[in-house]
Design goal:
By secondary structure, the protein is mostly helical. Helix content is 84%, strand content 0%.
Length: 215
């Protein structure tokens, strides 16, 4: 590879010299061209090496992806098993809950029937007591009616006497009021005022002189 590059450089220098370029300048240009070629070759080599590394990385990635896929599939399978177990447990719990609910419902229904039966018995007893109380109340009402009728009959006489007395009293009051009205309507009688006796005052005695003897 290096001899091919030297050969190419020699030919390049010769061609430049043939066209009139100074040999020194031709050698400098050949060296520059050689560096450029080697750089390009190195770049291609690096790219080739990079391609190799990328291929290795790609292979590693594919292997890792396959491993991840396998792990995911294994995890999904395990998860499916767990989900199936959970689902079975839930179904079992639901079935047990339904059985308990049915049992509880039957128990509640039986208790309700028993309570309704006891309530019917109590209602029948209450109805019997009410009928007995109503019958006793009817008897008391009939007795009260009889006693009230008897009291009314016995009080009729007293009521008649009281009414007659009130009538007499009212009549007397009316007659008295009539007499009082007649008396008030009569003209008043004139009465002369009493005469008074005229009396003269007693004579006043004359004053006496102590020097003159009395007659």
């Amino acid at each position: 590879m290096h001899s091919a590059i030297a050969f190419d450089s020699y030919n390049y220098v010769r061609k430049l010299r043939d066209v009139g370029v100074d040999e020194r300048q031709a050698a400098i240009q050949a060296e520059a061209m050689l560096d450029l070629v080697e750089e390009r070759l190195a770049t291609k080599k690096d790219l080739a090496e990079q391609d190799i590394r990328l291929a290795a990385i790609e292979a590693d990635l594919k292997r890792d992806i396959k491993e991840v896929e396998a792990g995911l599939k294994r995890d999904i399978k395990e998860l499916d098993v767990k989900l199936a177990s959970v689902e079975a447990g839930l179904k079992r719990d639901i079935k047990e809950l339904e059985v308990k609910m049915d049992t509880k419902a039957e128990s509640i229904k039986a208790e309700l029937k028993r309570d309704i039966k006891e309530l019917d018995v109590k209602m029948a007893a209450v109805e019997t007591n009410l009928k007995r109380d109503i019958k006793e109340l009817d008897g008391k009402i009939e007795l009260s009616k009889a006693e009230l009728s008897k009291a009314i009959e016995s009080s009729k006489g007293d009521t008649i006497k009281w009414t007659a007395g009130m009538f007499v009293a009212q009549t007397a009051l009316i007659i008295g009021a009539m007499f009082a009205g007649v008396k008030m309507n009569q003209p008043p009688v004139y009465q002369a005022p009493p005469t008074q006796e005229m009396r003269l005052p007693a004579p006043v005695p004359a004053p006496t002189n102590p020097l003159v003897p009395a007659k």
